[in-house]
Amino acid sequence: MTSASSVPHASPACAAGEPFAVAPQRYDAILLAGFGGPEGQDDVIPFLRNVTRGRGIPDERLEEVAHHYRHFGGISPINEQNRQLKAALEAEIAARGLDLPVYWGNRNWAPYLPDAVQQAADDGCTRLLAFATSAYSSFSSCRQYREDFARALDETQLGGTVTIDKIRQFFDHPGFVDSFVDSIAAALGGFLEEGADAGAIRVLFTTHSIPTADAQRSGPRDRDYGPGGAYEAQHLAVAAAVVERVVRRDARLDGIGWELVYQSRSGPASQPWLEPDICDRIGELPAEGVTAIAISPIGFVSDHMEVLWDLDTEALEAAASAGIQAVRAATPGADRVFVAGIVDLIEERIAAVDPAERPAVTPLGPWFDVCRPGCCENVRAGFKPAAAGVAP
Q: Which residues are annotated binding-site positions for Fe-coproporphyrin III?
């Protein structure tokens, strides 16, 4: 048993630091936490300054990345995706008779998280349950959001008034996993209808690469998840679960080849990051007899620049150069199955459902309500104050 003060900014049901909520809990509102993205050409460099804050990167280097955004008019689709997701969540919450408004805030662009927290408090909502738009365990996909919550409470001086819990990492919740199945099955079935041999088809499940040292520190420290930490282990488990469901849908795909690849690395060449890179891997596939690929971005909740540029542009160009037929499958976005699954997780936390009764489609889950001490350390910056987890 950890001390009652071990989880900063937590609700009473989570303040003691137990892995799962110990009692049913009332919440006043849902906090939808996103990454954020520019919505015009004038936003691009200020947005990239926010993303890279503290690293001292000059604007001329940021402009090397900015051309991805400028190619699409300076607009990332992520904010519009989150508007649609917010509306879908509100509709599903209302349909279930839950009195829970949804406040939306981003890390890197308007609407910002501190403003969302302040608005919630002004409206009398002081017990918040957060849903961050990232399903897996790592610094950037989990702990950094928890640090964002603590920073928002500090900046608004609401730390003694507002509590923020976070729904568990949902990588293997059926609502997330099932939301990938339709588009992958359609892509693979299309290849078969066009005469492709099943043995010449490959599914490339892709996610954002992260530094290997960060990957090794992802997840709790009391378990060995393998060389890529919980981050890689979770993705591999989800990919296997998706393929199982796809084959169940279409028996012609039994034995279909698949693998996990990575994209969007941004660190120096001297720093090890998770590999293989998707474009490098595509270039190797013709020698293995592969003629068609379905690219599934299982690391992402919605379309954003890493999908539009790194997959829809660069990866599809790599496939064309290799003479491989390629289709990019959908992200969950505001898919009804995904949205229903998130609201299931909200109800699960409100009711403090026993862990043995929580749905999880891989042996790794269900994941924790309260992140464990030492989980998902940032190798470069160490541990900063964070909500929704036991302090290290």
A: 76, 145
